[in-house]
Write a structure and sequence with these properties.
Layout: H1 14-21, H2 28-36, H3 45-54, H4 67-70, H5 78-94, H6 109-120, E1 127-133, E2 139-147, H7 157-167, E3 171-177, H8 187-203, E4 206-213, E5 218-220
């Protein structure tokens, strides 16, 4: 049976210390202990937090962990892993300049960039999203369509425009990231964009822009005059 926080001397319990002295006084291990709640046989939740921190280079690396990484640790089951990943994601969302795109009126590519740079700007794989807008250029939804190297065989207009019809969208913006940090379009990016523009003409749903996201910059096909209406 795991070591529970209630089994730790009261003066050393993270929750009691948080209430008595404030959350900012807790160590990283203590914060993780509160999230984990229980440890393993012979090790407290704080010990478990300390073990996790010893496996990563620094605290910021928690941003890069996933369920596959966490399940390798003895004592971190599905519940603890989900709790921690949910806390990490909530922290990311709190720090976003734009916390949601829903019902935001699009006035520039910068709005889309500010939302997605913290969402996919530092991902190690390419993430491809479609953003859907109404007649007034108000964003009504977005959808992650592909993860992995983006090429035309994967980015099929059928998948992108199907969601547009389901949402009743009048226009589409496509967004994907470049893990290497260079936002300039590749030959395939141009091919994908041109094919989506042609499909939009046939299907009657306007293709507004294709935005390539990196952590510190972006490239907009529209702003660089690569899309003409």
């Amino acid at each position: 049976m795991g070591v529970k926080i209630k089994d730790i001397p009261k003066a050393d319990r993270p929750c009691e210390r948080l209430i008595e002295y404030g959350v900012e006084t807790l160590s990283n291990e203590e914060l993780l202990a509160i999230i984990f709640k229980t440890g393993t046989k012979g090790n407290s939740a704080k010990d478990l937090g300390s073990e996790l921190l010893s496996k990563i280079e620094n605290l910021k690396k928690l941003n890069d962990i996933n369920f596959e990484f966490l399940k390798k640790f003895k004592g971190i089951g599905m519940s603890k892993a989900c709790n921690l990943l949910a806390c990490i994601e909530l922290g990311k969302r709190i720090n976003r300049e734009v916390d949601t795109l829903k019902n935001v009126k699009l006035t520039s590519a910068d709005i889309v960039y500010k939302y997605y740079k913290n969402k996919i700007g530092d991902k190690k794989q390419e993430y491809f999203y479609a953003v859907y807008l109404d007649n007034g250029k108000k964003i009504i939804g977005d959808k992650l369509l592909f993860i992995g190297t983006v090429n035309y065989s994967l980015v099929h207009p059928r998948e992108i425009f199907k969601e547009a019809y389901l949402l009743g969208a009048s226009a589409i913006i496509c967004v994907h990231n470049h893990p290497g940090g260079n936002p300039l379009p590749s030959k395939q990016d141009y091919e994908i964009t041109n094919n989506l523009i042609e499909a939009s003409k046939i299907l009657g749903i306007k293709f507004l822009d294709h935005i390539i996201i990196c952590k510190n910059n972006y490239y907009s096909f529209l702003e660089n005059n690569d899309i003409c209406f």
